[in-house]
Amino acid sequence: MxxxxxxxxxxxxxxxxxxxxxxLTKKLIDPKAAEFFCLECLADYLEVTSEELLDxxxxxxxxxxxxxx
Length: 69
Fold this sequence. Notes:
It contains 3 helices and no strands. It has helices at residues 19-28, 39-46, 50-62. It has one domain. By secondary structure, it is an all-alpha fold. It is 45% helix and 0% strand.
C-alpha cells in the first residue's frame, strides 16, 4: 500500500479509512487484504460492537503491533 493511497470501505464506501481501520481488517480478517472495512461495517460483519473493536485496537497497540497508530 502506498502512503498517499486512500481506501474506501468495501460495504459503505466511506473514505478515507484510518490506519486503525486498515489495521483491524488486516489483523482480524486477512493480513493480505486488498479490500477494507470501516469500524462500523467491520463491527457489523464480526457481530460485535464498535466499542469492542476500539478496545481491541488498544490491546493491539499495547502489544506493540505496528498496524495501529
